[in-house]
Specification:
With 222 residues, this protein is of the alpha+beta class. The chain folds into 2 domains: 2-138, VSR Endonuclease (Endonuclease, Chain A, 3-Layer(aba) Sandwich); 145-220, Arc Repressor Mutant, subunit A (Orthogonal Bundle), CATH 1.10.10. The protein is built from 11 helices and 7 strands. Strand 2 and strand 3 form a beta hairpin. The relative contact order is 0.11.
């Protein structure tokens, strides 16, 4: 049953992919299949909302890919084989992987890696880890989404769909409001813990990342 469902899912992913992502989808995805079969499907219940070889832009401007991503939950899942990710890895590759993990975090995603040995020998333990994360995620709200002013809600929705930190200029364009007004709204979201700063200042292209708390609000409102 899994093989048939996976084949349908994989074909849908390939149909909508192009360029380097399409090449990534056509490589050997054995590890990703194990991750899906042993952890993600048992916990999430279906392939709905998942994307294979999820494309992101790293902090250095290079395209990077997550094995499996749930964009709504803002979580990137990885299957790491000891041989390919540790035993036989070069120093340059090791440095790239660390920079890649930092980029995923800076883009506002939770980086959730699993080791191949864990997936094959301790699938229940891996499932429990994910259940625990979802439990914390679901309880992360301190204020209801519908209690927020409409402009704050719009900024959070904009931040959720963006694959990079936001800046004041982009928010002004999105809301069609002045810089002063947008800066005030952003400060309100910062004070509520719904956005986090990512360098600079409000007058110098301050960048912002959506927080896990804000993602929880948006997810629970659906």
């Amino acid at each position: 049953m899994f093989e048939k469902e996976y084949e349908v899912f994989w074909n849908e992913q390939v149909h909508h992919a192009q360029g380097q992502r399409l090449e990534m989808l056509r490589r050997d995805l054995t590890g990703t299949k194990i991750l899906l079969k042993e952890v993600l499907l048992p916990v999430l219940g279906s392939f709905d909302g998942l994307e294979l070889e999820y494309e992101m832009l790293s902090l250095s401007g290079v395209k990077i890919y997550g094995d499996v991503c749930h964009p709504t939950l803002r979580i990137v899942f990885e299957e790491d084989s000891f041989i390919t990710h540790a035993e036989k890895i070069t120093r340059d590759r090791f440095s790239f992987e660390r920079a890649r993990a930092r980029s995923v975090a800076m883009l506002g995603y939770t980086y959730f890696p699993f080791n191949r040995d864990e997936l094959e020998k301790k699938p229940s333990f891996c499932q429990r880890n994910l259940y625990e994360w979802i439990g914390r995620f679901g309880n992360a709200q301190a204020v209801g989404l519908h209690e927020l002013p409409v402009y704050e809600r719009e900024i959070l929705r904009f931040a959720l769909t963006s694959n990079k930190p936001l800046n004041v200029k982009e928010v002004c364009h999105w809301l069609q409001l002045t810089r002063v007004t947008c800066s005030k709204i952003l400060r309100g979201l910062l004070s509520k813990g719904l956005l986090s700063p990512s360098g600079g200042s409000l007058t110098r292209s301050y960048q912002f990342l959506i927080t896990e708390k804000a993602i929880a609000l948006l997810h629970r409102s659906k």
